[in-house]
Amino acid sequence: MDIRRANGLMTIAFAAILGLSVTGCDFIGGGDDASAGPGLFPVKIDGSWGFINADGRIKIPPQFETIEPFSENKAAVQVAGNWGYINADGAMFISPQYRVAGKFSEGLAAVRGTDFGASYGFIDESGAVVIPAAFDLALPFSEGLAAVRIDGQWGYIDRSGNMTIAAEYSDAQQFSEGLAAVEGRDGWIYINRSGEAAINPTFSINAATRFSEGLAAFATNDGWGYMDRSGTPVISPQYQEATPFSDGRAAVRDGRYGYINQRGEVVIENQFDGAQQFSEGLAPVRFNSDWTYVDIAEGRVAINKTYETAEPFVSGIARVSDGGDNPRIGYIDRDGEYVWYPTR
Questions:
Q1: pTM of the prediction?
Q2: CB 54, CB 67: distance < 8 Å
Q3: How far, CA to CA in Å, does 65 sit from each of 97, 115, 341?
Q4: How many angstroms separate the CA atoms of 294 and 156, rounded?
Q5: What is the pLDDT at residue 37?
Q6: Cβ within 8 Å of residue 2, ≥6 positions away
Q7: Which residue did the predictor score with more confidence, 29 or 172?
């Protein structure tokens, strides 16, 4: 999958640093929201993909070439090179017929046909085309709108396929907390759901992220900082990298990685070679080339084991791997014990 700028330039940088991977489609999936699924997690055995539950028991036997995490109790799967959808029981309810199959969001999914030069459209949960294929690229629906690209420019459509915000931006992100970051001729601004400029600061924004917990990370020539919904910089640009807030904490890099609170105070010292967002009270951090987890209360190592890659916790378990070009993927519980020993 060719990764597009999901959350501005920062996301690409963090994806490379953290070793994150996204598979299965060549448009942005809008994030890996495994918590929106039925508590099933991708695993790979002898080259085929299936799903386990949080106890590590196989619920959908490995049989697919590639899979995406569940969203709204549906998952995109690849069979014989084409993509279709299964339900939580593993039944194929939309046959493999797409070159690209996006995640379901707000009852709709962006898909792209197998014909050369095919455009993106949207299907509903029955597989019926509800928004005809007409777009170069498409993001999932969020807050009733989806960003789509037409002739190289981005705008937004509603669930009926009406272009509610004209395609006039060189880049665009999903709506979050009522606002979306878009890139125009003079840099990034934030618009509301009516397409009006809600935040158009006097200073130039080089990159911007979605709002999370009332704040959004943005970059200027001075570095990354955070603004509130009025566009006021509440944490001045100063960091080499910055992530969205989660659980009241944000990972930032100032030489090394640490965590700040929403007042910009350092709550976990800059001591890590990599850091990800908190989830369920724990966050993956890297010392040299090894990943482990710290707790949110004191920032101390919470799992006395290391992994070559590590991802945030979802429903009590976290995905880890032994790295490499063909990594073995496993899942651990909060004690660091394997509920699914790494396989490939």
A1: 0.87
A2: no
A3: 14, 20, 20
A4: 39
A5: 65
A6: 26
A7: 172
Alpha-carbon distance of 263 to 247, in angstroms, equals: 14
pLDDT single digits (tens) 228-243: 999 999 999 999 999 9
Q: Hey, what CATH class is 272-344 in?
A: mainly beta
Residue position matching structure tokens 């990594």? 327
In angstroms and rounded to an integer, the radius of gyration of the C-alpha atoms of the chain is 20
Q: What distance in Å separates the CA atoms of residue 136 and residue 118, rounded to the nearest whole number?
A: 9
Contacts of residue 29, Cβ cutoff 8 Å, sequence gap at least 6: 6, 22, 68, 102, 103, 140
Distance CA 318, CA 307 (A): 11
Ordered by start, the domain boundaries in the chain are 272-344
Read off the amino acid at residue 284.
P
218 within 8 A of 188, measured Cβ to Cβ: yes
- How sure is the predictor about 12, in pLDDT bands with cuts at 50, 70 and 90? very low
How would you class 180 by CB atoms within 10 Å of its CB: exposed for 0-12, middle for 13-18, buried for 19 or more? buried
